[in-house]
Amino acid sequence: MLQLVAPISLATASTRVLNASQNLQRLAHQRGEAYWLYMRLTGVSVWRPEYEDARRAVEALDAFRAAYAADAANMMEMHVAASATLDQLPALDSEQASALLSDCMEPEIGPRLDQCWKEHEEAMKEFVSCARAVLSVND
Q1: Chain mean pLDDT for the chain
Q2: In this prediction, what percent of the chain has a pLDDT beyond 70?
Q3: Which of 6, 57, 97, 98 is the most buried (most CB within 10 A)?
Q4: How far apart are CA 59 and CA 80, in angstroms?
Q5: Full-prediction pTM beyond 0.85?
């Protein structure tokens, strides 16, 4: 137990690091696969003709996400269209396609991921600062 050998300020800072790390881990577990797949789809050279299917899939996923977020009347049509475009990608299995479609029903991950990383970085800075103070290290 850290509490037995460290002052409360360091124990508190270490708890903040642990919480921030767990938040990142939870986000990665819940949405990491879909994020990774989406980044792979958007990372291909979509301007090249051989990647036309990937470009269409990204556009369809984005349209479904927007329709879902807006609770649009054509939301199910957008889901069907996105699913159909994902079916055109032979490298994508049904579980991966499902992960991508399910992720569209969540808020954009980018801002949440940025916030989690920011919280982790701030927690680590606080922990290092507290540890330096406890150890009387100034450099």
Answers
A1: 91
A2: 94
A3: 57
A4: 13
A5: no
- Cβ within 8 Å of residue 53, ≥6 positions away: 85, 88, 89
Residue with tokens 């399910």: 102
Buried b (16+ CB within 10 A) or exposed e, 5-18: ebeeebbebbebbe
Q: Which amino acid is at 1?
A: M
Q: What are the CA-CA distances from residue 112 to residues 31, 71, 109, 117, 120 (Å)?
A: 11, 21, 5, 9, 12
Whole-Å CA distances, 126 to 9, 12, 23, 71, 78 = 10, 10, 17, 41, 45
- 3-class DSSP assignment, residue 10: helix
**pLDDT score, position 46:** 58
Give dist(CA 26, CA 23) in Å, integer. Answer: 5
Question: Quick one: pLDDT at residue 51?
Answer: 81
Query: Taken in order 44, 92, 96, 85, is the CA torsion positive or negative?
Result: positive
